[in-house]
Amino acid sequence: MERNDIIDFKALEKELQAALTADEKYKRENAAKLRAVEQKVASYEEFRGIVLASHLKPLERKDKIGGKRTVPWNCHTTQRGTSQDETTEITQVKTLFQPETSAEFYRDWRRYLRSGPERYQALLQLGGPKLGHLFQTDVGFGLLGELLVALADHVRPVDRLVVLGILRSLAGTGRFTLNLSLLSHAERESCRVLFQKLQAMSAPRSTKGGFSQAEWGLEEQPGVLQDEERLLQELLGVYRMD
User: Fold this and answer.
1) In DSSP terms, which residues pair with 208 in a beta bridge?
2) What distance in Å separates the CA atoms of residue 32 and residue 176, rounded to the nearest whole number?
3) pLDDT grade, residue 82 (50/70/90)?
4) Which end of the chain is more exposed for a tag (fewer CB within 10 A), N or C?
5) DSSP label at 73?
6) What is the pTM of this model?
7) Ordered DSSP codes for 204-217
8) Residue-wise burial string across 113-152, b where 16 or more C-beta atoms lie within 10 A, e elsewhere
């Protein structure tokens, strides 16, 4: 067997574990959604809270407040001291954010990318096609809103075409219509602001606010600009902004 034909079992195991984790998360959150519907929750926030807390387990009778615990009751929120190795790992992830599965994206997005600018740059780095591939099954509950907020808060004219591509790819993911309908009021407003900014960037190419066309990243390219405008109009309808 040649060197190139050697199977990397460690990589396969990692990929399998990531897939199992993503599948478990999907089933757990889906079950929580069904429970919330059956309970006829009074508001979206209550519905959201039930889903986001789906990983928590109830305390057993033997568990006592203040008693000695050998294992954390909520491993998702347990705080640990950050070692030098962990700090190095965080820096590396921020520098090179390249998740291969949706589970890896969830993990790194929420664990390492805390600020808006970091998240925005990570989305630009991945681009629309990669994001569409990662979330072809489902973006995941609550994540679509976070992505839209990051884009709305930091979009720049020079990134306009890339952002439009990201929005198009997200619109092609599984259960997009459902995830869009579950956006909170604040997330919905961020989505509206994002499209308003994108529309403003397509204004006449004369100088605006003292900035030149080059500074706004809006050099005249008729064919490209027409394609951008068609895509923008299409996305306005898909995201229900029209």
Assistant:
1) 211
2) 19
3) very low
4) N
5) S
6) 0.58
7) -SS-BTTB-HHHHT
8) beeeebbbbbbbebebebbbebbeebbbbbbbbbbbbbbb
Contact 213, 207 (CB under 8 A): yes
Highest mean pLDDT pick, 5-14, 148-157, 194-203: 148-157
Domains of the chain, by residue range, sit at 8-55, 99-204+220-242
pLDDT for residue 118:
92
CA distances from 85 to 79, 82, 89, 99 (A): 16, 8, 6, 20
Q: How many CB atoms lie within 10 A of CB 156?
A: 14
Tens-digit pLDDT profile for residues 38-81: 777 666 666 676 777 666 665 555 555 555 555 554 555 444 44
Write the DSSP symbol of residue 7: -
Asked if 36 contacts 50 with a C-beta cutoff of 8 angstroms, the reply is yes
122: its two tokens:
């990570």
Distance CA 56, CA 228 (A): 44
- Direct distance between the N- and C-terminal alpha carbons of the chain, in angstroms, rounded to an integer: 59
41 dihedral zone (left: phi>0; alpha: psi -120 to 50; beta) = beta
Contact 99, 22 (CB under 8 A): no
List of residues 6+ apart from 141 with CB closer than 8 A: 29, 33, 48, 51, 52, 179, 182
User: Is pLDDT of 172 > 80?
Assistant: yes
**Interval 190-215: pLDDT, tens:** 999 999 999 998 754 444 444 444 44
Query: Within a 10 A sphere around the Cβ of 29, how many other Cβ atoms?
Result: 19
Angle at 13 between CA 10 and CA 18, to 5 degrees: 125
